[in-house]
Design brief:
The protein folds into two domains: 1-67, no CATH class; 79-165, no CATH class. The protein has four helices and two strands; from the N terminus they run ββαααα. It has helices at residues 79-136, 141-147, 151-164, 167-197; strands at residues 31-35, 61-65. It has a two-stranded antiparallel ribbon. The longest helix has 58 residues, at 79-136. The radius of gyration is 45 Å and the shape is elongated.
Length: 198
């Protein structure tokens, strides 16, 4: 019991002639408290009958619980962390301030690329249409060979038209081409630097 309030109970068995420590959990609060332990309902395990013990209480014990210390102040970030945070904030601020300019540049590039794509699409559409007409007409082999694209060029024109007429395929291929060119240039520059060292 704490301050005459029951905070927990335990059931236990102690062999004759022995001692045993029992405990219960308690969430302490700051200040002075009276602690008391009491034994009740004692039974003989052999006869299952109630028995009496000489000392059923421990007597009140006064304890003083000190207040919990304040939490330690947060650890200041290291110099490396401060530098990284400063660089990150600077980059974010630069991106935020330059976003309108970046949008205008990207919009201009997209409009130019889209204009080239639609022009190529129209030109290839005419060639594909002519190829389709030439296949359906019954002309002489000599006329077909000299007046229209060879078979390989016809298939190539059809394939390119399929890519150009689809925005998804066109821009996906464009990105891959740019990445490939970038990697090739990077390899060439590395090779030149390696040669210059020797």
């Amino acid at each position: 019991m704490i301050d005459d309030i029951v905070v927990g109970t335990n059931s236990f068995t102690v062999p004759a002639g022995e001692t045993q420590v029992e405990s219960v959990s308690w969430t302490a609060s700051a200040g002075k408290h009276l602690v008391l332990a009491k034994i009740s309902e004692v039974f003989d395990t052999n006869t299952k009958t109630a028995v009496s013990v000489a000392n059923q209480t421990t007597g009140s014990q006064s304890i003083n619980v000190e207040p919990a210390p304040p939490p330690p102040p947060p650890t200041p970030p290291s110099k490396a962390t401060q530098t990284i945070n400063l660089v990150t904030n600077t980059i974010q601020a630069g991106i935020a301030s330059s976003t309108p300019i970046v949008k205008r540049v990207l919009s201009s590039i997209y409009n130019m690329t889209e204009s080239l794509r639609t022009t190529a699409e129209k030109s290839l559409a005419k060639k594909v249409e002519n190829n389709t007409k030439s296949t359906g007409n019954t002309q002489s082999a000599k006329t077909q060979e000299t007046g229209f694209l060879p078979t390989t060029q016809k298939h190539l024109a059809n394939a390119v038209f399929a890519v150009v007429s689809s925005k998804l395929l066109f821009y996906f291929g464009l990105v891959l081409s740019v990445v490939f060119i970038f990697l090739m240039l990077k390899m060439i520059l590395k090779d030149r630097k390696r040669k210059n060292k020797y």
